[in-house]
Design goal:
32% of the residues lie in helices and 21% in strands. By secondary structure, the protein is an alpha+beta fold. Among the domains are: 173 residues, Dipeptide-binding Protein, Domain 1 (Dipeptide-binding Protein, domain 1, Alpha-Beta Complex); 250 residues, Dipeptide-binding Protein, Domain 3 (Dipeptide-binding Protein, domain 3, Roll), CATH 3.10.105. Strands 11, 12, 13, 16, 17, 18, 21 and 23 form an 8-stranded mixed beta sheet that branches. A 4-stranded mixed beta sheet has the order 1-10-9-8. A hairpin with a 2-residue loop joins strand 4 and strand 5.
Length: 643
Amino acid sequence: MKVLYGYKKAIVKFVGVMLAIMLALTCFTACVSTEKGYSGYGTDAGKNQSKVLRIFGTWTKTGIGTHYNCGADAGPFVIFGLEGLAQYVRTTDEIVMLLAESFTHEGNTTKVKLRDDAYWHDGEPVVSMDIIGCWYLNHDEATSYMESVTEIDDKNFLITWKSYLTPAESARDILLAQATKIGSTPYHIFKEFVDEAIELTNSLEQCPETSTSRNSSYFDKNWNGDAATAFGEIYTAYRAYEVDGVYPATGPYKLESYTETQMTLVKNENYYLADTCGFERIEVTYQPTAAVANQMLAAGQVDYVDGTPLQSVLESILQQNGSLVHYKILDQGTVGCLFNLEKEIWASDIVREAFQYVFDRELIKNTANPYAATSWHSMSTMCSYEAEKWLDPDDYDKLAEYYYDQSKAAELLEQAGWSKADGAWQDENGNKVSLTLGYVEGTPWTAMATTVQALLKSFGIEVILKSTESPTTLLANARITDSEYDFMLYFTALNPWGSHPGGAFKHMYSQMDAAMMHLPVNESDGHYSLVLNKADGSGTFRAWDVFERIYTYSGSRLREVTADLVVGFAEMNYGIDFYDNVTGSFFNLDTVGNLPLQELFSEDRNITTLYYYNDADYDNVQKLNLYYTQATSYSTGVIIPRG
């Protein structure tokens, strides 16, 4: 690990400890490669004649159930076995058509044509009622925009969108592609439950125009208490239903077997893209600890691993195994800290502004992820490179930039009535300031938490660290009333739902951040009451009202409302952006073929070049991340075995 600053004793001590740990972890291999490059990739034979892909994954060890919607997690089989009508490629504008052959938009309707050659794993053809039934049983975001879905014939059906909430045509493609597991409810198996759900839905009255939940009502129906209870009974029975035989799915791989520690998937020879699907088997090892995973990767026991570890770990792994390459992949996420607005300390505008200057963001980035790009903004709910794409330049320039200046922070805190005695800050009431920081244990969060703690200690503020085992637990702990967290480390922006700005705002307002931060809620409708300034200074608006309609906007209007949400939130200083994240992918070059940038392999297998939206190789590199593309890079021949 490269030590970038020498003046922080606590940081240097932390780096030294991490180096010692990583050095110990590298002692297990007898042979260490000294070659930085890899030659012969495009000409020599590979070492994967059996056409097997070995990866890590997680699933419910006690049993994955008999169908996707039973509640148990089937992990890798969900990625490689289940499909939607289409699959968006996260961070790009590409949509790969899967079960659907086409979407035809006209007015407030969309006609969907299914593939003639799509079949369930049990051999039955995929038909319109399979998709319609899944939507009526599994309400998702798309169904909150729909008025109805009706069958035309076995291979065609019609979506009628709400007349008052019709998504823009480009947004419809994204919404339909976000239903990535719509191929999970075959009508020939779940007919009883589908028919009951459709009958119940059709029996309900239209949602009243005055209803505060009208925009989010499924199929534009009035889901009152009785209706919700009746649907709950149908859905509970549907989830509990045990399917005999083959796990219902349509994708390129079938589930052959699994135990608590191993899962085997085999190629679906009847898959409509079987000719381009190169791997015959996928062998999955249950995700081990980071140390064991690194050992297996270095020993050549796995072909693909997602993510970018600490720099010292990454370089050690590549040195131990001369057949590995690591790509850096742009992520539509920003890492930083979120303030718990229930805490009195954050009530002051000046205090929140002061904290923007407390942290050495460059140091934090280099400690946690040196391949990332430092962000100089307060929390804006959208990563910098996504904001640059969706905001007009004049609006993007309105995002204030902050720098590392603890003297400036001290000046602002003194304006807020704080004082410093014996090297420790006291608030306006004379109480010593001590903050509790919540974070997720593991890379990069632990390194970041330790660095944040050291920086605040040097500034005169005590920080107590509280780790959790997962983001789900962090969310649960943070959102409770009177949470122990004063602030949290997490994604201050994230868009896992394609390239539309609605994905970033979904993460903010309906998934994670707003609940963790305790944004104020309007009691009359239960939605966030946050009011922001418009980017052009012409007035104010309620953030939720714009977010709720985000998919209905297009063109310049979409850019305008996106700027309002991003610039308006950034002005509040409700959190701090540390860096725009970069993830990555390890591949074993002996066993995996058709990878891009082969000309770079002979120079250095640690590919540090980061490709952005308009770069020629951007799309090719983004497709390498399994969690950005699901199975599509493997089913369409983008990634193949190297035999």
